[in-house]
Design brief:
Strand content: 35-45%
Structural class: mainly beta
Number of strands: 32
Mean pLDDT: 93
Shape: flat
């Protein structure tokens, strides 16, 4: 959620008309990594301007939606002091001092951090605006300028694929932690991730050569939430109940307003009830799964030949995901013969390393004279099979009469039980059968520590607005020494109308009127 600004003067300076803005851009030209910021290059002196956006696009089952972040920074591209040398940031001029690190396309996917803040006296105080990677470069020779497009850490996460074993009865936090560790580059450490538990156990979960980031988003949506990289580069998973669950740290508490905007804090406030936000007919499909009996899960479609005294590996793709694979039995699961047809199965040893969707079979031939021809090779195991889908359908007739039928159909492989589908369908209908109040604030002096999903307060007496809102989008711009933002917001009470939800370990059991009791969320 919001960044921690305790111990700084950022709040008072954000509210002061005389505050001086500071901006910093750091780049990992030497590939030291996110954990070695001291080795990065501070290029702040060359920055002319910068802008960016973080937007939570409501998608699938999430109340606020997955967040994506992008920024663009324009820098002065100075000539090096040595005679006949190139421009400092030029990826095409071999005479530049950074060419060995950024030339010939090496600049792409270099790590980058942009920060904005205010001076406390002579000391700059910063809040992160984006942590990610350079994904595009535009060089302009006529005015010695170069601009970088930077995207959050999802830019790299989206490029990773993996396969896993079969997880059973696993919570979202545990499974997402396992998937995060499989990212090819910069997997987040324990201090770089913060995951909610989720709203239900997943009966079965696995990957089979699939995109990790896509699967992580599907898991988040199946729990009515989202997964995203915040401005500081922390990977966050927030489930359906996240925005009504208090947090011990005030800056991460979604029930605590992080800033109050009054008419002196913005140039315009534009409220809207958008009928396109309405969902009054929800269809959610659940696909139950079960472990079946022992059966053949792989049969070789070709004859493999193992040379005398040699070994080969066979990649076996299972017909279905499996809980486990039985040890191959000679004469049943594999039969080896010579080219002349003599059986040499006893000379063959077979070992199997298995994941849910595939196995690696190692075939070793101990016969020093003859190649082994595998005319039978199969694996048996206990497969995970699917039952007929269960469809849960809910609608609100009054909303349909008012706004017309607006259907949301959800198919998600991580929704596997009826009660899971029912909870999500009811949640979506309750939250979006009527359009929530959204407002756009423009001309906001920079409040650089805010994040999408933060709760803020807006007071505009002429419009009758004095409410708490969740941030759904932040646009920011640093130019001419100033920092300005625009914010898109949605009213908290329209998504979560109550503040007294039941919290295990805190609330008391009892009906309405019981002191310390709480309402059940979905």
């Amino acid at each position: 959620m919001a960044q921690d600004i305790s111990g700084t003067s950022l709040l008072s300076n954000a509210q002061a008309t005389s505050a001086r803005v500071c901006f910093r851009g750091r780049f990992d030209w030497g590939d030291a990594g996110f954990g070695s910021l001291a080795s990065w290059s501070d290029e702040s002196a060359y920055i002319r301007s910068a802008s960016g956006e973080m937007r939570a696009a409501r998608k699938g089952l999430s109340a606020l939606g997955a967040v994506s972040a992008v920024a663009r920074v324009a820098l002065f591209n100075p000539e090096e002091t040595a005679p006949n040398s190139g421009l400092r940031f030029s990826p095409s001029n071999a005479n530049g001092s950074l060419y060995s690190q950024i030339g010939q396309g090496k600049i792409h996917m270099k790590r980058a951090i942009l920060e904005a803040g205010f001076y406390a006296g002579a000391t700059p105080e910063y809040a992160r605006q984006i942590t990610g990677y350079i994904v595009d470069v535009i060089e302009q020779s006529e005015n010695q300028a170069i601009s970088f497009e930077i995207r959050d850490r999802a830019a790299v996460a989206a490029l990773s694929r993996a396969s896993t074993g079969l997880y059973e009865g696993v919570d979202a936090r545990t499974y997402l932690t396992a998937l995060a560790a499989l990212l090819d580059r910069d997997p987040p450490g324990s201090g770089e991730r913060d995951f909610d538990l989720g709203i239900a156990l997943e009966p079965f979960a696995w990957l089979d050569d699939e995109e990790i980031w896509r699967e992580m988003n599907q898991i988040a949506e199946a729990h009515g939430g989202r997964i995203w990289w915040d401005r500081a580069g922390v990977l966050r998973f927030e489930d359906l109940s996240h925005w009504v669950r208090p947090h011990a740290d005030s800056w991460q508490d979604p029930t605590t307003s992080q800033f109050t905007f009054t008419v002196s804090d913005f140039e315009s406030c534009n409220p809207r009830y958008n009928p396109d936000d309405v969902i009054n007919h929800v269809i959610v499909e659940a696909v139950p799964r079960y472990i079946s009996i022992l059966q053949v899960i792989y049969s070789a479609s070709e004859t493999y030949i193992v040379p005398p005294g040699g070994s080969i590996e066979v990649e076996a793709v299972h017909r279905w995901p499996v809980r486990n694979v039985a040890a191959p039995v000679a004469g049943t699961d594999y039969v080896a013969v010579t080219a002349g047809g003599e059986t040499i199965t006893s000379d063959l040893s077979v070992s199997v390393s298995s994941l849910a969707g595939r196995s690696t079979i190692t075939l070793s031939n101990a016969n020093a004279d003859y190649a082994a021809h595998l005319y039978t090779l199969q694996l048996r195991g206990f497969p995970l099979l699917s039952s007929e889908p269960i469809t849960v359908e809910v609608e609100d007739s009054a909303s349909i009469t008012q706004y017309g039928r607006r259907t949301k159909r959800i198919r998600n492989p991580y929704i596997q039980e009826r009660r899971h589908a029912e909870a999500l369908a009811d949640f979506m209908l309750a939250r979006f059968r009527n359009p929530p109040l959204t407002i756009s604030l423009a001309g906001v002096p920079g409040v650089p520590w805010l994040e999408p999903g933060d709760r803020v307060t807006v007071q505009e007496a002429d419009l009758g607005i004095s409410d708490d809102f969740f941030i759904t989008a932040i646009k920011w711009e640093f130019a001419d020494g100033g920092l300005e933002q625009s914010l898109d917001l949605v009213r908290c009470a329209d998504l979560y109308p109550y503040s007294d939800y039941f919290i295990i370990g805190t609330s008391k059991f009892g009906g309405a009127g019981t002191t310390g009791a709480g309402r059940l969320t979905w």
